[in-house]
Amino acid sequence: MSYSQEMYGLGSQGSEIREIFEYGRRRKAEIGADKVFDFSLGNPSVPTPQAVTDAMIDILSTAEPTAVHGYTSGAGDMACRTAIAEDLNARYNCGADPALIYMTCGAAAALCCSFRALATEDADEFIAFAPFFPEYRVFCDTNGGKLVQVMMRENDFQIDLSLLDAAVNERTKGVVINSPNNPCGVVYTEETIRGLAAYLEKKQAEYGHPIYLITDEPYRELVYGGAVVPFVPNYYDNTIVCYSYSKSLSLPGERIGYALVSPKAADAKAVYAAICGAGRALGYVCAPSLMQHVITRCAGVQPNLAPYEENRRILLEGLTGAGFTCVNPDGAFYLFMKSPEPDAHAFAAKAKEHELLVVPCDSFGCPGYVRIGYCVSKETIEGSLPGFAALAKEYGLS
Amino acid sequence: MSYSQEMYGLGSQGSEIREIFEYGRRRKAEIGADKVFDFSLGNPSVPTPQAVTDAMIDILSTAEPTAVHGYTSGAGDMACRTAIAEDLNARYNCGADPALIYMTCGAAAALCCSFRALATEDADEFIAFAPFFPEYRVFCDTNGGKLVQVMMRENDFQIDLSLLDAAVNERTKGVVINSPNNPCGVVYTEETIRGLAAYLEKKQAEYGHPIYLITDEPYRELVYGGAVVPFVPNYYDNTIVCYSYSKSLSLPGERIGYALVSPKAADAKAVYAAICGAGRALGYVCAPSLMQHVITRCAGVQPNLAPYEENRRILLEGLTGAGFTCVNPDGAFYLFMKSPEPDAHAFAAKAKEHELLVVPCDSFGCPGYVRIGYCVSKETIEGSLPGFAALAKEYGLS
User: Fold this and answer.
1) Which stretches of A211-305 are DSSP H helices?
2) Cα–Cα distance between A107 and B72 in angstroms, integer?
3) Would you call A314 helix, strand, or coil by DSSP?
4) Cβ pair A253:B135 closer than 8 A
5) Disulfide: which of A66, B98, B127, B160 matches B82 by Cβ 3.0-4.6 Å?
6) Of residues A66, A270, A288, nearest to B255 (C-beta)
7) Is B58 in the A-facing interface, judged by CB distances under 8 Å?
8) Helices H, strands E: what count in chain A?
9) What are the pLDDT digits (tens) for A128-166?
């Protein structure tokens, strides 16, 4: 064969989310943008904070262009890594070390580098809790690992240690968590993180090798109603944090984030070096330099959560008022709603008749649910409620 | 083992070029920046054109931030790909198709995606002509291929087809070229490209499968004295162009470039899909979005070559006048100089005594030569000449 069938498959297979979005575009052109309610994407609707735009323009207007746009070191500009470590230490008192922070093209790159760095043989397994972002499987399986799916506890979407225990074995190299979660919006409680940490400590001792906790945290700052996201390295030593500014600073296209190895991890420096080596192998020369300089100045800038908080409130009230059941949405910007019929695709098709575009979550490993991204305008939220009410009525929910 | 030894090796092994550069930094602090002549890096010294900076500031000042910084499609924003295709078609009349352009985080990502897309089994071989950028071996070997090295013809550093023929076999999946070349500055002539194309056509027919020509072209626009760089897709159908704006627009840290599949390639659409799939597998969600919007406006902006041209002239006259021998430097921004003793490391050590920092090219697959990057200030060039003259005298060259 003259090219890789596996890569061809990945490149030619369409994304369901993207297809729904494209349908929405066509439909808006047909009947008017204000009559279609597209909840398909996870693209932030809140603009990047003005402080970030100001920093970009100031850097471009005043700094020497060859310094702004030149290569940084492969691991990232030290000033940027230092600013990030200082911000994390101020917030979490976690001993973050700039020498163990590797700047990446977003969390996707951080995850791929982590899998590639840790996987040593074909049989190395990484466990992820469903529902999870479907690309996890691609990132893991094409970078030397094998993704193993474990369901979250269905009543509250926290981690069920007995389900986890049924999946862990000697080949378990790592466990991936994502809290606040895409697609279900759940934030793992401190109790959940403590329980997971204690369980993994026990299994590490039993098997005599580290089990890494890879924590994918692009939504870390997106929490509502006083929910607290435990900072995982403070609970478990063998932790790798994969972070992105995509959601917190509304910079998803700019591809800026990092992988952080906990200084308390076993062989922390060697694991960090392996992540840097994986970055080389995957062709990441450095993370985008202007954005690194921006983060140096803006590491402590907080997201503007007010629009998401308001959308969430209005939508949650509207949906539960109409009779739908949603998972407790403490974080991220998604509502995870139980489909009133077992087949979420069939439900999404009926929703579409009301011009409501939602994402069936079968591909997230969780059939029977849909994801409703509320990173949209308030007008979209408000305009969608009559449709949802009518839909609920069709199903006899109200 | 709890992490990958291969990735650890890649991440912990220092870059020789980077070490020379770091030595230069320390030495400048000791004796003064104007007394150390550092020719180690390939970081452009010419600032990005003002039109590019103006475009960035204008976009940031006037466009809607969620549009500027939002995800583009995985293959890149269509307006950007269209602007690139139009520019290429205007210059080369090559039938470039936006639907076959995949925006990447620079040429390194384009190369990694190409290797990953094409390699189908462990035995798939890709041939590169030495001297070549040392990362080629990393990019190829960690993405499913096996790099095979063939020396260029030593008298003029063009391609020697008899040496190539000794290396080509049924497992040859592709051939990588880099013209203008890093580190030797040579531009392949039209005769060379025609000869290579005819040879590969013959071997394709003989083996009954495509042999892809992967052409790494970050220096395409950096040529001097009227040299012409043949546009390879116009000579050979099964061509993949890997391009970067790192050198032409002095944006190396921003990671913006593309992979282009020739519309005349066999299975062009499938090969393109495989490259897109490889991008997914390697964690490239999209190329940095602000830079894509910048390229949409600046695809036709030409580099400012005057400073490099002047540096090249002064340095070449100085070195050859002192008795050194340099390869004909038609392009890029490197002089490739024959070491006056067989061991280029020993020569570089002697040069260091004169505060001249040059790169031995053993790691480029070409012992006995050093690379002198003239992407530095004119003052560095002029200030270095007495040292080079003294060095030549030590070797009895003048």
Assistant:
1) 268-281, 289-298
2) 16
3) helix
4) no
5) B98
6) A288
7) no
8) 14, 12
9) 999 999 999 999 999 999 999 999 998 899 999 999 999
- Predicted confidence at residue B398, as pLDDT, reads 81
Closest CA to A315 of A381, A253, A375, A379: A381
d(CA A280, CA B89): 33
How many Cα neighbours within 13 Å face the side chain of B336? Answer: 28
User: What is the pLDDT, as a whole number, of residue A15?
Assistant: 80
Portions of chain B given CATH number 3.90.1150.10: 5-49+304-394
Q: Does ipTM top 0.90? A: yes
Q: Which helix (H) or strand (E) holds B387?
A: helix B378-394
The architecture in CATH of the region B5-49+304-394 reads Alpha-Beta Complex (3.90)
B335: helix, coil or strand?
strand
Domain with CATH 3.40.640.10 in chain A: 63-298
Burial of B162 (0-12, 13-18, 19+ CB in 10 A): exposed
Q: How many CB atoms lie within 10 A of CB B303?
A: 19
Interface test with A, best of B1, B6, B7, B10 (most A CBs within 10 A): B7
CB burial readout B195-212, b (16+ within 10 A) else e: bbbebbeebbeeeeebbb
Q: A80: which DSSP letter? A: H
Measure the CA–CA gap between B373 and B370, rounded to whole angstroms. 10
8 Å CB contact of B285 and A105 = yes
User: Structure tokens of A142?
Assistant: 């094409």
- Whether A6 sits inside 8 A of B280 (CB atoms) is no
Scan residues 237-256 of A and list those with Cβ closer than 8 Å to B.
250-255
Q: What is the DSSP letter of A95?
A: -
What is the Cα–Cα distance from A90 to A108, expressed in whole angstroms? Answer: 26
Instruction: Characterize the bridge pairing of strands A334-338 and A369-373.
Output: antiparallel
Topology of the domain comprising A63-298: Aspartate Aminotransferase; domain 2 (3.40.640)
Q: What is the pTM of this model?
A: 0.97
Residue B311 confidence (pLDDT) above 80: yes
The contacts of residue A275 (CB under 8 Å, 6+ apart) are A102, A113, A114, A117, A240, A259, A261, B7, B11
